[in-house]
Amino acid sequence: MALTHKAKKRWSLVILLVGLPVYIVSAVTILNVLYPDPNARAPFWVELGIYIGLGVLWAFPFKFMFKGIGQADPNG
Q1: Which of 14, 24, 32, 42 has an alpha carbon 20 to 30 Å from 8's alpha carbon atom?
Q2: pLDDT by residue (tens digit) across 30-50?
Q3: Which residues cross the membrane (predicted)?
């Protein structure tokens, strides 16, 4: 079932305003669980790589949703 352009815009907004903050909090929580001791944390570059990887990874399942959102409605 294909979504209309208007529905895609609405769902994209929900994903960005609700889903992305939830994903960010969960990524930080997971990293804090993996390295609970502040003195025994992973090196800065390792943490940066994990955050960048997770930052890119969240967008792949929603690629179809964000595609064409910035364009004018093709139906009118």
Answers
A1: 24
A2: 888 888 888 888 888 988 998
A3: 12-36, 42-60
Tokens of 61: 């399942």
Residue 73 sits at the vertex; the CA angle it makes with 72 and 76, to the nearest 5 degrees, is 120
Q: What angle do CA 15, 20, 22 make, to 5 degrees?
A: 115
Task: Give the mean model confidence (pLDDT) for residues 53-65.
Answer: 88
Distances (CA, A) of 40 to 9, 35, 56, 57: 43, 7, 26, 26
The whole-chain average pLDDT of the chain stands at: 88
**Helix or strand holding residue 63 (H, E):** helix 63-66
Six-digit token string for 56:
């890119």
What pTM did the predictor assign?
Answer: 0.74
